[in-house]
Automatic annotation (TrEMBL), chain A:
Name this polypeptide is given: Uncharacterized protein
Stored PROSITE patterns: RAB, RAS, RHO
Domain of life (superkingdom): Eukaryota
Organism: Triparma columacea
Pfam families assigned to the protein according to its UniProt record, in alphabetical order: Ras
Keywords: Nucleotide-binding
GO MF term (any one): GTPase activity
InterPro entries: P-loop_NTPase, Small_GTP-bd, Small_GTPase
NCBIfam families: small_GTP
From TrEMBL, chain B:
Domain Rab-GAP TBC intervals: 99-291
GO molecular function annotation: GTPase activator activity; small GTPase binding
Pfam family, one: RabGAP-TBC
Organism for this UniProt entry: Triparma columacea
Cross-referenced PROSITE patterns: TBC_RABGAP
Protein name: Rab-GAP TBC domain-containing protein
Amino acid sequence: MSGSVRHFKLVLLGDTAVGKSCLVVRFVRDEFFEFQEPTIGAAFLTQSVQLDSSVVKFEIWDTAGQERYRSLAPMYYRGASAAIVVFDLSNKESYNGAKSWVKELMRRGDPNVVIALAGNKADLPASQRKVETEEAQAYAEENNILYLETSAKNASNVKNLFVEIAKKLPQQAMQQEREQGFTISPPKQEKKSCC
Amino acid sequence: MQQGAEEQQNPLGRFEVLVLQMEDGQRKIVHDAYGFVKSAESRPMALAESTAERDRSWFTFLTRLGMDNLAGNIDTLKTNEGDKGNKDRQEFSRLVKLGIPVAFRQQIWLALASRSEKTIKLSSREFNANVSRARTELPSEVIKCIRNDLDRTFPGHSMFSSSSGLLNLECVLITFAFEHRSIRYCQGLNMYAGQFLQFLTPHDSLEMLRHFVTGILPETYFDNSMRGRMIDGLVIEHLIRDEMPTVHGKFEELDFDVAIATGAWFSQCFTGCFSDMELVFRVFDLLLWFGNIVVFRLAMSIVRKNEYRIIAAKSAKELYELFVKMALDVNTGDIREAAEYKLRTSAMEAMRDKIMGRKTDALEVEVERLRARYKAKVEEALGDDGGEDV
């Protein structure tokens, strides 16, 4: 245990009820709740991972998943060094949602943002799976982002997800770019009546 | 008849029953007076004050007002003119700031949300019809969205661990969604509905939800654009800049976004931010009588109270955590104090208003001015594509 300590802002994005908060709660407190309250707005948490020669401290923004909250998302991914885009392996729609989040991050996020795609709920039986590993893997490679299948419920791959991200982050904690004031620049959103 | 639309018997009587202990494997579950699972971090100090004197004052006042048809009498209190009307209103305002006793809260809330007892029985049939209609006519994706959040609303709460409790919640949310095309369902509304259901019937909870979302809070907090939240985020930042420049300087220095840190204070009226449900209900007491400005008063008052802690912060992270703590530290006394919050910079305006014979509140005027100003800005940024709200 030693070496430098680096701080990074990390944001979680993805459709509603895919398990964003569950992943964070598993990572930060090693707990799991079957019924996790929907995140309203966003929640802020911190947790560190120990690498061989350094410690990475994550400042985590866990965001709301409902479609209409998307207009607020730029407030949270602005200046983020890393992003975890989560989808539910048993929900194809959420996978499509995740892809649009990745696209948005690439277009509007920090140019060096480290993106990890997380297929969550890997504990569910194979019969419920709607997204194949190969498909998501191929998409991730194509876009040069990480892909991991996780289960917040049984904890598999959760810590690993953050460790893999930590390894890809720059050796020097970046001086986060400062923007003056409050920027409102929500993306054009699809009109949907609900989420 | 829909099972979920059944009227609950004696909703107030439930408070006593819910204080119980159960064995759940290794973990002991203790529900508090509101049916929530009591956590180790419960802070009894927040409610330590004695309410005996307050309750006596309430009793005296309400007896004088007339306990029969209390709802109707409070309803007329809103509009009564003349000296007596003014005096009654003044006393009522004073009492509301002290908090409405649990025993009267249900009736007084309904009265303040303009529900006189007469109409309750009449429209309860209509309510059931509306629920059925909403169930069949609401777009299925909206219903799916609502169902998704039902068992995630106050998980662990004794009421929402039962299927009838969840059904009631569904009834309220789908009927609201059916009635409000521009809003439908927004995550967070489940929390409001869940809170009301704890001591109101589904029918009355719907009325209350309607009153909060379309009467007290800006509707644009919950519609597709959510522009109301962006606007108020800019307004609170502006107010802090004017009132507490050193604090605002710290925000800038650390690249801290106060709109983010106070987002839930505004959109949820502190639900989930305070250490005890009673504190949230105290805020709702105030909101129902004094209106949305209460949230600004509270937010400003909390920030002012913690000025020195904020200025001492070393990083944005520390500040985000501090803002969570600041809300958790709020007690009943703070809420009473906050209800009286006045702008430091308002002396001139107060004098002017006095000369002009106006009875306005400087903070209210300022918030309205800033909202109008930032509305234009936000709409410009949204490219006027922000939504189809009315």
